[in-house]
Amino acid sequence: AMLRTLSGREHGVVTAVRTNGFFMQDPNPDGHEATSEGLFVFTSSAPTVDAGDPVLVSGRVSEFRAGAEADDNLTTTELTSPIVTAGAGDATIEPTLIGIGGRDPPPFVISDDAEGGNVENPGTRFDPREDGIDFHESLEGMLVRVRRPMAVGPTNSFNEVPVVADGGLLGFPRT
């Protein structure tokens, strides 16, 4: 797991709150589609922030893998042992549009170069324009809006519903 300490306080806007932390997003994106502007701040107890709040945070960056190591779950980038203070300024984040007029996820390829099926193996190329798993990694922790979502599976135990954008038309000829 990658571990590093933020050298200073990072500005962000709270985009979602959970029982053990919150997601924040950089209000000044770097403009690179391959890099996520979001981060989960692990507070371990109920955070004292609300969605839309500007914040300043510092702490230790790590990769968290839910479940057992043998489960092969993907990691989530998070900030641990955070120091969170109120920020100032505009607390508006525009969601990244997924679908026509925004970013199109790769419709057919999950990953075409993951050796042994593991995207964390050395030599695996990160390509969010070609690999679906990399596309979603490039949006990790960010506020997104799915254009014309269509449910494609049942609600899971986390109350998540799998959806596709534009009624499932992405990747097919459009008229």
Please, could you describe this protein's structure?
The protein has a five-stranded mixed β-barrel. It has a two-stranded parallel ribbon with strand order 7-8. It is globular and about 45 Å long. Strand 2 and strand 3 (21-25) form a beta hairpin. The protein has 175 residues and is mainly β. Helix content is 3%, strand content 31%. It is built from one helix and ten strands. The model is unreliable at 1-7 (pLDDT under 50).
In short:
With 175 residues, the chain is mainly β. It has one helix at residues 132-137, and strands at 4-5, 10-18, 21-25, 38-42, 54-65, 75-86, 96-98, 144-146, 150-151, 163-164.
Observed structural traits:
5-stranded mixed barrel, 1 helix, two-stranded parallel sheet, 10 strands, single chain, 175 residues, disordered N terminus, globular, 3% helix, mainly beta
Shape: globular
Average residue-wise pLDDT: 83
User: What Rg is obtained from the alpha carbons, in whole angstroms?
Assistant: 17 Å
Q: In terms of per-residue confidence, which ranges show pLDDT below 50 for 5 or more consecutive residues? A: 1-7
Largest sheet: 5 strands, mixed, barrel
* Spatial gap, N to C terminus: 46 Å
Q: Count the strands?
A: 10
- The spatial strand order of the largest sheet comes to 2-3-4-6-5
Q: Report the helical percentage.
A: under 10%
Helix and strand pattern: EEEEEEEHEEE
If helices are DSSP runs of H or I spanning 4 or more residues, what is the number of helices?
1
State the secondary-structure class: mainly beta
Strand content: 25-35%
